[in-house]
Design goal:
Blueprint (H helix, E strand, L loop, with lengths): L11 H6 L3 H30 L4 H29 L1 H21 L3 H10 L12 H12 L2 H35 L4 H24 L16 H6 L5 H18 L4 H12 L3 H29 L1 H18 L6 H15 L2 H11 L6 H18 L1 H8 L7 H21 L5 H13 L1
Helix pairs in contact: 2-6, 2-7, 2-8, 2-11, 3-4, 3-5, 3-16, 3-17, 4-5, 4-6, 4-8, 6-16, 7-8, 7-12, 7-15, 10-16, 10-18, 11-17, 12-13, 12-14, 12-15, 13-14, 13-15, 13-18
Length: about 425
């Protein structure tokens, strides 16, 4: 369907209005999930600290949580086109529910580790689990090529607004509970329970999706790699992208939103309600930037947009801990968020464009798992650094430097590999010339 509709209006408004019922349902699932992730990220480290865990243990739990999400997501996403995309979305939502319930009702470290490994918990405020890959593949299945990047921009905007709102409400709810005399552990536990409840609602919504989002039938193949990982002709480009994305995520994992919130709390004594407000504003700026990215990409191309908006955002990230006061640190952080997520809808659109249609879930899943794997390693290091006054700024420097290295490598490797809509524009321009 997508490839056959190249003449469709690629404008932002047309792309949003053109969504059918399944498209709107996928947007609703994204909104619910990202609200839950933002809701949890602001208080997760504070909650684990409140139940008596030391910084090293907190970092270890964050790491195994992300590693567990990686393994589960790899299996689910590489089999989603065979098992059914709807079923995989339901399974992921149930894993959210179960993980939230366990985290809320135990402080026993082995059980927390098991729940974090098997379940779906987002310590970063960003995507984890199988959802993103399957939803991207489903959306690409039901929208035309020319609308893909704009649709992904709206899709990410919905996520950013939801994450921002979740962060704000979690901060206000926790602060209100503390103000009326609730113990910190009880105030933060209520947020964790809210996360579990949203997982249950998502499972019901995912079950109601239609067959239009499912993968097209593929010809049988004897390629062993395809049987194991859902990839055939796309495996080379996916392998390169996976390596590069893991570098980017490894850098970002040094200072995810939950640890950034903790850093502001330790460095400036910021209370939960203020933390929620800060990350509400930051994620709103990310939401606006995702739409801007779609317009820039339509003119300059996906790779150029990814790289040349990401580099300055990471320079700003390096500057955050150098600011001497809270207002200046927040200002630089917010400036960073005006640029930092412009590469997200463009990156997602690019991956979907350069792989075969029946390999999209697997491609998005494998590249997503590469990102999760990279991000999983860093928190066990940076949690201890952030808690140590002498090294608290180091995660910002490591994150910014590694992410800039990724940008330069990405440009070198893929600037000549263009998606179909850019090839079509180039051919049309050549004919007119």
């Amino acid at each position: 369907m997508a490839a056959g509709s190249a003449s469709a209006d690629a404008g932002l408004i047309a792309s949003l209005r053109g969504l059918d019922g399944d498209g709107r349902a996928l947007f609703a699932l994204r909104t619910l999930r990202m609200f839950a992730y933002g809701f949890l990220a602001v208080v997760l480290v504070l909650y684990l600290d409140a139940i008596g865990l030391d910084p090293f243990t907190v970092g270890a739990i964050l790491t195994v949580t992300l590693l567990g999400d990686t393994v589960i997501s790899l299996w689910l996403t590489t089999n989603a086109d065979r098992l059914g995309r709807r079923r995989v979305l339901v399974a992921g939502a149930v894993l959210m529910l179960l993980a939230g319930v366990v985290f809320a009702f135990t402080s026993w470290i082995p059980l927390l580790i098991i729940a974090g490994t098997i379940g779906v918990i987002s310590p970063t405020g960003n995507e984890v689990g199988p959802f993103l890959a399957v939803e991207q593949a489903g959306l690409t299945q039901i929208v035309p090529d020319r609308r893909r990047t704009a649709t992904f921009a709206w899709y990410n905007l919905a996520g950013y607004v939801a994450t921002a709102t979740g962060a704000l409400i979690a901060g206000l709810a926790a602060q209100s509970s503390l103000a009326v005399g609730a113990a910190p552990v009880d105030a933060y536990r209520a947020v964790v329970l809210g996360y579990a409840l949203i997982g249950g609602v998502m499972a019901i919504g995912a079950w109601r999706l239609g067959r239009a989002i499912e993968a097209p039938s593929a010809a049988p193949t004897t390629d062993g790699i395809r049987r194991r990982f859902g990839l055939g002709r796309s495996k080379g480009v996916v392998a390169k992208l996976s390596v590069l994305f893991s570098i980017d995520a490894f850098g970002g994992g040094f200072i995810p939103q939950s640890l950034m919130a903790y850093w502001f709390h330790v460095r400036f004594g910021v209370e939960p309600a203020v933390l929620g407000a800060i990350f509400f504003g930051a994620n709103l700026l990310s939401a606006v930037s995702s739409l801007t990215a779609a317009r820039i990409a339509a003119r300059f191309g996906l790779i150029n947009t990814m790289v040349f908006t990401h580099i300055p955002s990471n320079l700003l990230l390096i500057l955050v801990p150098l600011m001497p006061t809270l207002p200046l640190a927040v200002l630089v952080l917010l400036l960073r968020f005006t640029l930092s997520q412009m590469d997200v809808p463009t990156r997602q659109s690019y991956v979907m464009a350069v792989v075969d249609p029946d390999e999209r879930s697997a491609a998005a899943g494998i590249t997503g798992v590469a990102r999760t794997t990279g991000a999983a390693i860093s928190p066990s290091i940076s949690t201890v650094l952030v808690a140590s006054a002498g090294y608290a700024a180091l995660p910002f420097y490591l994150a910014g430097g590694l992410k800039i290295a990724y940008d330069l490598l990405m440009y070198r490797e893929f600037r000549a590999v263009r998606p179909p809509e850019e090839q079509a524009r180039s051919s049309a321009a050549t004919r007119r010339g």
